[in-house]
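In the design runs reported in the main text, the only information available to the sequence generator was the tokenized backbone. The following block is the verbatim input for one such run; it is reproduced so that readers can re-run the procedure and compare outputs position by position.
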């Protein structure tokens, strides 16, 4: 049973609406076992505030996956049973302790990714992750002491290190003596094979049975045939005893260390247990986000007016290439929707879509529909769908349906959503139609929301006379004798029995005779329906043509804007070229004039003062033309505003004197100078020479894309981190740096033992964003810094 069922909802509703299949899909997308358990046991919420919170969490998870590409919860082992018995157990095994460390690491990284290094991030997911309590000291101590699931590290304790060194020395002595024996020509003839093996923890050599007396020592084993005896020679018995003693001491020390590590974990067992379930809850949210993204789902708008509006809704369990989207609305003036149409036309799928979307929404899962969809929160959802006749209980189809309806009527109220398939079917049509109308009247009186399907013409006509009821139909293509699966609201469905029979070859006189048996009002009603359907098809065709024309107009407008932008760019290019040509001509004219002046001065017998005046007038005219040329062609510079009062490191600014964008490296000093980086050059500039960076507005008519503007520093400090943790932080930083357009960044890892530098540089060699890297030069940090060049 689910941990919290909706009031008045039964397990059969989940199964009828195939919600159990959704939960299995959800579990398959969970990263950890606890998340999968929660997915299989998920229950829709009854409270509107909780539904809104769950949908907001899913929205944040979708945004996180789109930005980071991976969920914050990694797969971790299920250690709940170990945590429950940790107080009673003497100690946990190395494997169990490693699993504890793995869970602690998963908890720590989850909190780091969702809350940030200083817990500066906000949002519902950050609130959930803030409850995690990582125990890094325990995690690191376990990692330091245990190498793998079966072995502890020599450095786990000084005593263990000394014991193992003694064991290695003793082992070498034993092997040295035994090797001298098996290489000796004296003993080789007594041996079955020249090798050293171990039996019962003792070093032995294989001796032929018949030469037992020639090799003094202790027999520890023999072969199955008895032809080979495994003897520990007397020469190594003492060493063997010493080795056996060391093995015992090693086991005692290992047990002591495991007991000590277990004692470190035990006080926090309950906290760790709680952390596992917090990570399971977070994993469930991200499983919902993954499923929602696969469906291209939308976050439905929640309303308190019990209003349902589905825009291009697609049933998620039908192949996306085959499903036909439907539009449906319910609420306000219409509380009961009567859907009619041919068999296999999509009526039942429509019912299941409405019911399943309600369960999805109230479980915090996006619905596969288009923007503009709305959902309400119901306290109960009831469904009577399909043929549930029971041979064991002697129930017919009608009796089975009526049993369900009786149970529904006992529990339904104004906060219920009721879905009824083939209402009144399985009995006499006249009585069935009368019952159907009476049941619908009762549901309308109770104020619940209801979608029902029927074939009865009486029910169609009945819906036309009741305020709060509306007809709808599943479209049928008579020419192709197949349903289109499109839902048409406002027009009741037509059986099309005569048209289908005629196309299938039934003689016309039989069909004509059948028409004479219909009542006059029935014929008139069917003709009205046919006319309404024909008008609807015409309206749909005209709407489709109008939509196509609008798309073509928008496409033409976009092409026009693109052409205008291209022509403007071409004009600017031509103007720039004309300016350069004009400057070249002026320069050439200057050169020619200077040459002419030199020649004039070289002439004899002329009035020098008069010549100078002529030359000066010519020069003045030339300069006036040059100024006019510059004023005509010079582009108007934008107003950059006044200098900022102060700037902060990491801020993006504009250096006026250089006409370049730069990143601030330090705050202004006492002289008012600021250290900035322009490209790969670091320089100092005056604060008055800086302006706020201009945000380029998109061209009018062009597609607008909203991007979050993030200031990215030119360097990242990961000193003191473990290699695995540093890699996660560095990868996220490199993504941000690439998005910010940085070409070169500095990763500060410090010198230390060099392990962090080596681990990061090994990671850089395989990184897709990195073009190359090098050690820092003198003044950049030397070996404590790696300078990374990013790909464009």
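Verbatim output:
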């Amino acid at each position: 049973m689910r941990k919290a069922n909706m009031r008045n909802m039964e397990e059969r509703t989940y199964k009828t609406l195939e919600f159990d299949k959704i939960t299995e899909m959800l579990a398959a997308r969970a990263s950890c076992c606890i998340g999968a358990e929660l997915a299989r046991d998920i229950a829709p919420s009854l409270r509107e505030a909780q539904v809104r919170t769950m949908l907001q969490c899913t929205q944040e998870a979708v945004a996180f996956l789109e930005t980071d590409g991976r969920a914050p919860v990694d797969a971790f082992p299920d250690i709940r049973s170990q945590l429950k018995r940790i107080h009673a157990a003497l100690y946990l095994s190395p494997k169990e302790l490693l699993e504890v460390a793995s869970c602690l690491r998963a908890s720590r990284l989850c909190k780091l990714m969702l809350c940030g290094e200083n817990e500066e991030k906000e949002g519902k997911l950050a609130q959930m992750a803030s409850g995690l309590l990582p125990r890094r000291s325990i995690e690191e101590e376990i990692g330091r002491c245990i190498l793998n699931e079966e072995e502890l590290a020599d450095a786990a304790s000084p005593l263990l290190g000394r014991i193992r060194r003694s064991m290695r020395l003793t082992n070498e002595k034993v092997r040295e003596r035994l090797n001298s024996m098996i290489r000796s020509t004296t003993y080789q003839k007594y041996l079955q094979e020249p090798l050293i093996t171990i039996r019962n923890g003792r070093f032995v050599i294989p001796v032929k049975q018949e030469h037992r007396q020639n090799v003094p020592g202790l027999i520890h084993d023999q072969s199955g045939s008895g032809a080979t005896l495994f003897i520990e020679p007397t020469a190594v018995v003492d060493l063997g005893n010493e080795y056996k003693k060391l093995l015992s001491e090693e086991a005692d020390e290992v047990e002591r260390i495991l007991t000590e590590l277990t004692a470190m974990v035990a006080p926090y067992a309950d906290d760790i247990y709680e952390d596992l379930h917090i990570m399971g809850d977070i994993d469930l949210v991200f499983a919902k986000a993954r499923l929602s993204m696969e469906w291209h789902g939308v976050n439905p708008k929640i309303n308190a007016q019990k209003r349902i509006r589905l825009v291009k809704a697609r049933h998620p369990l039908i192949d996306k290439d085959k499903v036909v989207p439907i539009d449906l609305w319910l609420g306000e003036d219409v509380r009961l929707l009567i859907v009619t149409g041919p068999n296999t036309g999509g009526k039942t799928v429509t019912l299941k879509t409405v019911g399943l979307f309600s369960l999805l929404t109230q479980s915090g899962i996006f619905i596969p529909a288009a923007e503009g969809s709305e959902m309400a929160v119901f306290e109960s959802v009831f469904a009577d769908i399909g043929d549930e006749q029971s041979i064991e209980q002697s129930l017919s189809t009608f009796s089975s349906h009526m049993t369900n309806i009786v149970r529904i009527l006992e529990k339904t109220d104004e906060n219920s959503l009721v879905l009824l398939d083939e209402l009144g079917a399985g009995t006499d049509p006249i009585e069935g139609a009368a019952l159907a109308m009476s049941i619908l009247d009762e549901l309308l009186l109770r104020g619940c929301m209801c979608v029902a399907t029927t074939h009865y013409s009486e029910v169609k006509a009945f819906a036309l006379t009741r305020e709060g009821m509306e007809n709808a139909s599943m479209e049928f293509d008579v020419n192709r004798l197949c349903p289109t699966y499109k839902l048409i609201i406002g027009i009741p469905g037509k059986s099309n029995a005569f048209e289908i029979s005629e196309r299938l070859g039934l003689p016309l006189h039989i069909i004509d005779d059948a028409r004479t048996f219909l009542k006059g009002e029935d014929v008139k009603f069917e003709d009205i329906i046919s006319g309404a359907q024909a008008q609807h098809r015409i309206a749909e065709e005209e709407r489709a043509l109008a939509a196509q024309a609008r798309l073509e107009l928008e496409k033409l407008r976009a092409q026009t804007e693109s052409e205008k932008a291209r022509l403007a760019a071409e004009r600017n290019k031509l103007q720039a070229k004309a300016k350069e040509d004009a400057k070249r001509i002026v320069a050439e004219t200057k050169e020619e004039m200077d040459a002419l002046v030199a020649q004039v001065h070289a002439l004899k017998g002329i009035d020098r003062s008069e010549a100078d005046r002529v030359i000066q007038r010519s020069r003045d005219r030339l300069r006036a033309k040059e100024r006019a040329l510059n004023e005509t062609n010079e582009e108007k510079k934008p107003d950059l505003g006044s200098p900022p009062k102060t700037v902060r490191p990491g801020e993006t600014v504009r250096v006026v004197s250089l006409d370049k964008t730069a990143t601030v490296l330090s705050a202004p000093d006492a002289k008012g100078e600021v250290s900035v980086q322009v490209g790969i050059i670091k320089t100092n500039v005056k604060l008055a020479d800086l302006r706020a960076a201009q945000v380029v507005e998109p061209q009018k008519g062009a597609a607008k894309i909203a991007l979050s503007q993030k200031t990215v520093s030119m360097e990242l400090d990961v000193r003191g981190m473990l290699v695995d943790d540093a890699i996660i932080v560095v990868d996220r930083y490199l993504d941000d740096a690439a998005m910010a357009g940085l070409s070169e960044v500095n990763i500060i890892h410090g010198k230390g033992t060099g392990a962090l530098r080596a681990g990061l540089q090994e990671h850089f060699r395989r990184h897709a964003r990195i073009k190359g890297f090098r050690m820092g030069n003198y003044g950049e940090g030397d070996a404590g810094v790696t300078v990374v060049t990013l790909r464009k």
